[in-house]
Amino acid sequence: MLWITGFLLVAGIFFFAVGVVGVLRFPDFYTRLHAAGKCDSLAAVLVIAGVALYNLVDFSPANLLVSLKILAIAAFVFVASPTATHAVTEAALIIGMEPWTKKDEPQ
Length: 107
Known about the structure:
By secondary structure, the protein is mainly α.
């Protein structure tokens, strides 16, 4: 079980790092927010699932209840993070922020 926990944590950290690279490398607000939103959601769920699984190493009914609560937090993050990302991009579109296009690229 510790191997699975370690894999989930490492995979989560990897996707956080990929999201950071996307935020630093992409050209405009929309693509940066897309990278952050997708990678952040997946990474957070992986890390939280790893923590929930690690909590079950010493199995007891109390630890099972705590792990279920942690998984409920993961479900909330899985729903709330993309929703918040969508709301922020919609607000940016409403206020008139233009997306990057190929013609904006310097020669």
